[in-house]
């Protein structure tokens, strides 16, 4: 699917341009050791999901020294020199749950067939966290996956997918694509950008011809990345933070739909949410994925809660639509440690607020 041959109104976003250097600085500070200056309480306050000891067991839990469930070598594979999104405890429990599920799948595979069913090989994946302004309001773009997909159907997510060595290594990347987006060296950044373009179905060459896109200012920029987080299948998912450098229209408008037609095989809704609405409307819910752990050292001692964010009211919104799971776990620390401080002045002045959530 391609952009219709109509004029698209695009103006550079001065707010995004002013914010970009500080966002880059915050994200890069972790690679330079800046993140180590935060104390554990500050880190845990920003990260998600939340793990709460049950009140009646908190005292006994605090007095017991738990034996590590994951080896230091396995931990080091996830703790890259970028901004962390999970605390050590959260990462440990996630890896333990992945291991438990893998044992379960192996047992089932043996019962079904000794040769036909095997666990999939771990793969690298990347998601793109798309920062933007919508009519001057700092916002984030989300997608809802198609109902026809075999995994995570109808879930709210960030654009992304698996690394493809043929498409995503720098040496094989088309020069025009790299020049338009900037000099992207990281292979996973290439993955995130490719998936973003494939899912949203925007055509950079068509956009340049049918809009007032500046030759000096690219349509997209990469600002940085965070540490990878594990999916429940054990794959490494690396969030790439980037921005649209031009101000976007509201997602319900014709201009927005012309700009991002969307791939119907992968998505059935593309929308934006103001950062102020995400910050002020966060809630939480129990995470059921750890509800039946069979490990004595953790069973029954904790209640596990994850962050949840609402989506704006729209004709395409379905009952039960919400931002949760891995998407919300990636979103919350970025909101608290990056976007909120960067856009604090706009949020305080009320310029970063829409009335979208008032209609929920």
TrEMBL record:
Family annotation (CDD domains): NUDIX_CoAse_Nudt7
Keywords: Hydrolase, Magnesium, Manganese, Metal-binding
Cofactors: Mg(2+); Mn(2+)
UniProt-recorded Gene Ontology molecular function terms: hydrolase activity; metal ion binding
Superkingdom per UniProt: Eukaryota
Protein name: Nudix hydrolase domain-containing protein
Species: Cyclotella cryptica
Classification of source organism: Eukaryota, Sar, Stramenopiles, Ochrophyta, Bacillariophyta
């Amino acid at each position: 699917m391609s952009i219709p041959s109509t004029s698209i109104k695009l103006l550079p976003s001065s707010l995004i341009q002013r914010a970009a250097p500080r966002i880059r600085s915050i994200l890069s500070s972790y690679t330079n050791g800046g993140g180590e200056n935060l104390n554990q309480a500050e880190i845990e306050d920003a990260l998600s999901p939340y793990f709460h000891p049950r009140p009646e067991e908190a005292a006994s839990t605090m007095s017991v020294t738990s034996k590590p469930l994951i080896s230091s070598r396995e931990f080091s594979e996830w703790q890259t020199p970028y901004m962390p999104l999970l605390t050590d405890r959260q990462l440990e429990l996630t890896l333990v749950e992945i291991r438990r599920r893998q044992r379960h799948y192996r047992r089932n595979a043996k019962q079904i067939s000794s040769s036909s069913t095997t666990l999939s090989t771990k793969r690298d994946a990347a998601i793109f966290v798309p920062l933007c302004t919508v009519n001057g309001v700092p916002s984030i773009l989300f997608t809802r996956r198609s109902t026809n997909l075999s995994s995570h159907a109808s879930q709210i997510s960030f654009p992304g997918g698996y690394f493809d060595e043929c498409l995503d290594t720098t040496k094989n990347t088309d020069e025009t694509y790299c020049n338009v987006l900037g000099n992207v060296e990281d292979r996973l950044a290439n993955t995130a950008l490719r998936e973003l373009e494939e899912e949203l179905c925007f055509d950079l060459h068509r956009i340049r011809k049918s809009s007032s896109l500046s030759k000096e200012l690219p349509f997209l920029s990469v600002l940085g990345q965070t540490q990878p987080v594990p999916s429940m299948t054990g794959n490494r998912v690396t969030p790439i933070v980037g921005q649209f450098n031009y101000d976007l229209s509201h997602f319900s408008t014709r201009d927005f739909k012309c700009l991002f037609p969307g791939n119907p095989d992968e998505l059935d809704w593309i929308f934006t949410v103001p950062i102020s609405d995400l910050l002020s409307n966060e809630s939480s819910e129990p995470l059921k994925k750890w509800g039946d752990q069979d490990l004595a050292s953790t069973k029954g001692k904790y209640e596990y809660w994850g962050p949840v964010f609402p989506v704006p009211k729209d004709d395409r919104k379905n009952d039960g639509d919400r931002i949760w799971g891995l998407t919300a776990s990636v979103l919350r620390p970025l909101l608290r440690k990056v976007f909120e401080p960067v856009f604090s002045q706009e949020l305080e002045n009320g310029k970063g607020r829409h009335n979208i959530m008032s209609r929920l």
